[in-house]
Amino acid sequence: MSTAGAGQRNIVVWAALAANLAIGVAKFVAAAITGSTAMLTEGIHSVVDSGNQVLLLYGERRAKRPPDALHPFGYGRELYFWAFVVAILIFAVGAVVSIYEGWLHWSAPEPLQSPLINYIVLAIAFALEGTSWMIALREFGSAKGDAGWWQAVKDSKDPATFTVLFEDSAALAGLIVAGAGVWASHYFADPRIDGLASIVIGAILAFVAIFLAREAKGLLIGERADPKLVGGIAQIVAAHPAISAVNHVRTIHTAPKQVFVAISADFDDAVTMGEAEQIIENIEDQLRASFPQLSSIYIRPEKREQAATLAAG
């Protein structure tokens, strides 16, 4: 994991944490004064988001630990575990509590209070969340390259950045819904609308949580590296004159910027065992020079027919 890459992720997460802490306090104050359930829901949302950012920072730190006897490939995938925990928290705490509070307020609406403080807090929150969202969007945009936004999220192996991006997007959508709920409650003189806004915010959080959990699950199970990287590895190995054929190249991400690769190659029959050892060492050096993200490389000499039989079986 590069220091620069980790630093960029930390900037995104720290910016989101600072914004959510400040916003959360303001929302709870506004909810206490006005009795707005939508504002209370938004306050809970900010608390959940703040806790999530703390967990992502904790996961980043834990993932940096070096390999040891118990975890010979390092701890990089621990970040994926905490990203999955974050998704569960968004659903269990953010979405469920928001929907429950909204239902309570719909069933037993409270008298309306002056909405002015709600509008002020929502405007400040929107400015802070928007700043955090822009930082996350810029960092993710610089990392995605030429890929489309949706495809980049699907292909990303760095959950910290896109988790914050989706959290901030949900937060901005929630602020808009909360503002609309407060306005509609007063305009139509029906406090139940404020509860309905809380339910809608909960539904938004549930959608985001399910999506993030799905992405984190894929990373936890293990996802292959970019097909371009796999093709580049195969090309370098196949170019060596002692290699008759590349049977397969199998990869798995052990961290956002670390890839384990296992290569099966058919060596020329004239190559001796001693020569094969030196050839493998040379190929590994060439692969590491071309692809620094390859943290572990295993090259197995294997007859093409044997590899095909094993694959079929």
From TrEMBL:
Parts of the chain that traverse the membrane: 12-33, 79-100, 116-136, 170-189, 195-213
Compartments reported by the entry: Membrane
Membrane topology, record value: Multi-pass membrane protein
Keywords: Membrane, Transmembrane, Transmembrane helix, Transport
Matching InterPro entries: Cation_efflux, Cation_efflux_CTD, Cation_efflux_CTD_sf, Cation_efflux_TM, Cation_efflux_TMD_sf, SLC30A9
Lineage of producing organism: Bacteria, Pseudomonadati, Pseudomonadota, Alphaproteobacteria, Sphingomonadales
Domain Cation efflux protein cytoplasmic intervals: 228-302
PANTHER family xref list: HUEL-CATION TRANSPORTER, PROTON-COUPLED ZINC ANTIPORTER SLC30A9, MITOCHONDRIAL
Domain Cation efflux protein transmembrane: 13-220
NCBIfam families xrefs: CDF
GO biological process, one term: zinc ion transport
Protein name as catalogued: Ferrous-iron efflux pump FieF
A Pfam family assignment: Cation_efflux
